[in-house]
Amino acid sequence: MDQRSHDVALGDPPRTRHELNADAPWDSFDPAAYVDHNYRLLRSDDEEILIAVRDHFSDHFRSASTASAGPRRGIDVGAGANLYPALAMLPWCDEITLLERSAANVQYLHAQRSDYDSNWNPFWDVLTKEGAYRDLAEDPRARFKRTVEIREGNLFDLDPDREQWSMGTMFFVAESMSTSYEEFRTGVERFLRALEPGAPYAAAFMEGSVGYEVGSHRFPACSVGETEVGEALTPLSEGKIVLRSIGMPDGPLRPGYEGMIVACGRRSSE
């Protein structure tokens, strides 16, 4: 996620000096520090997000219209050092692409692919409260290793004319890579266009974020709420988008945000 989108200042306040995605030190991102701070333990806000995503995907694939579908390919856009979006797609995918810009995060994902760390076990346990996960015929680590492909790449380079996926996730990416609302909207659009018509998706966003630190580096963000998230998702979604604002029952994860938002929907047929 390192390429500047076209006309990045469109729709933004004049004379604003943006911190753009292309300018952030992504290769210096510290995945060990990030995981230790964010995912060493399962927080109640992540658990609430997991439940919403788990139920959304389970309900979608339980329906008669999708029951006979062939092999499926999932994508987690901007996977970073977070495995739980990919785990949420595990029962339904023959392949899962983890798309990630940062070389440091790509290295982390490769190390996790063969045998992911035990801190991810409580996240999987939440998923197994639903039958599709609980009844998986394969050990989740073995299935993760078999299905996951790690791809170093740029969100803005996703091209629906070359490749599309059957389901997708994008967690804490579009609003957490730039101060530009235009880059935020473009990021959401590129994610949705990478999905096949009718594909289920789940996306999560930091609400009201003003930027964040990982290790010794600071990274940009733009402040979004349910209105901005809904407006970005609606043009390429069909049916109802379920938006849920997640509070901070365990206290803030870090300074400079107001909560989290999880969005579950389905890609439109245009």
TrEMBL record:
Keyword Calcium found: no
Domain of life where this protein originates: Bacteria
Region annotated Disordered, chain positions: 1-23
Biological process annotations from GO: methylation
Pfam families the UniProt entry points to: NNMT_PNMT_TEMT
PROSITE patterns: SAM_MT_NNMT_PNMT_TEMT
GO molecular function: methyltransferase activity
Alphabetic keyword roster: Methyltransferase, S-adenosyl-L-methionine, Transferase
UniProt feature, compositional bias: Basic and acidic residues: 1-21
Xref: Gene3D superfamilies: Vaccinia Virus protein VP39
Name of the featured protein: Methyltransferase
Organism (species): Actinacidiphila acididurans
